[in-house]
Amino acid sequence: MVFKIRLFRRSEKVENADSASSKKSSKTFKESSKSSKKKSSSKSSKKETKAPKPVEKENVAPKPVKKEKEQPKYFATKKKLPELYQGRKWSTSDPIPYKPISCEDVSFKHVSNVVESWEVIRRIPNFESVAGELLLRKMFEIDEAFRVQFGFNKDTDANDPAIYQDKKFVMHGVALVIAVDKAIDFLGPDLEPLEMELEELGRRHIHMGAKPEYWPLVGDALFHTLGAALGEKFDSKLQKSWTVVYHFLAYYMIRGLLAELSERS
Predict the structure, then answer these.
(1) Cα–Cα separations (whole angstroms), residue 142 to 86, 165, 184, 220
(2) Distances (CA, A) of 226 to 113, 127, 139, 187, 238
(3) Number of H helices and number of E strands within the chain?
(4) Is 179 helix (H, G, I), strand (E, B) or coil?
(5) Cα(203)–Cα(255) distance, integer angstroms
(6) For residue 122, is it left (φ>0), alpha (ψ between -120 and 50) or beta?
(7) Could you tell me which of 110, 133, 59 has the C-alpha nearest to residue 248?
(8) What is the mean pLDDT of the chain?
(9) pLDDT by residue (tens digit) across 24-67?
(10) Minimal CA–CA distance to 246: which of 193, 206, 186?
(11) Is the separation of the CB atoms in 84 and 71 below 8 Å?
């Protein structure tokens, strides 16, 4: 009997030991599974937090820079007149080197731009002599006929500094600028009455030996003078305004000159 009880207790101990070991193994299994889950989650999170690879940019060729076109001359020498002023071929019946123009073709903006820019030149000290020297010197460079017309030898060097001190040269230069100044004073909101006044002014140019082909040449020299005096202010918009206004002034002055010539012939 005692032997049986001992055997029972012994078997009970074995069973308890087995159950304890099984509990331990289950705990270790659970812990191992938890740790494996943590590792897998940490791996996945590491994979997710990886920074994306930088996208390689394609080598795009830079766009070619467009070169600005050189601005054409608004007035040229006798050899070639710009298309804008080549309204008709020169002939005895119609030798005016400009397209017909009326006061309706000249806007208030054109006039105001010209008047305001000329006012800037007026503020230059002794502007008549300063602008006159630039204007007449350029005219001498463009055509030797101007040298003869103003009482100089046709071989006179326009770039000779001595000529700038010549009283006759200074006088003619100042007279040209005063003539431009008076023409600018004529400008206003109503240009229709100005057409007849310009024709009368053109008639008086007959005493100066003026010819119709001189107006584009003087215009070229005038634009050179304006560019030198105004600098960057003499941009394309201002040049356009001066082109239209000078076209208007020159056209009616030449008409007056031709009318006087025809009446005297």
Answers:
(1) 19, 20, 24, 9
(2) 13, 12, 14, 18, 10
(3) 8, 0
(4) helix
(5) 8
(6) alpha
(7) 110
(8) 74
(9) 455 454 455 555 544 444 444 444 455 556 555 555 555 555 54
(10) 186
(11) no
Determine the Cα–Cα distance for residues 51 and 49; give it in Å rounded to an integer. 6
Q: Which of 215, 225, 208 is nearest to 254 (CA)?
A: 215
What would the pLDDT profile of 59-89 be if each residue is shown by its tens digit?
555 555 554 434 333 333 333 333 333 333 3
Token couple for 45 = 């999170």
Which two three-digit tokens encode residue 217?
Answer: 């040449």
Q: Which amino acid, residue 99?
A: K
Q: What is the DSSP-derived secondary structure letter of residue 97?
A: S
The answer to whether the beta carbons of residues 250 and 195 sit under 8 Å apart is no
Average pLDDT, integer, range 18-28 = 50
- Domains, in order of start, for the chain: 107-264 (1.10.490.10)
What radius of gyration do the chain's Cα atoms show? 48
Sign of CA dihedral 204, 198, 130, 225: negative
Task: Flag whether pLDDT at 211 surpasses 70.
Answer: yes
Distance CA 91, CA 88 (A): 9
Total residue count of the chain as it appears in this document: 265
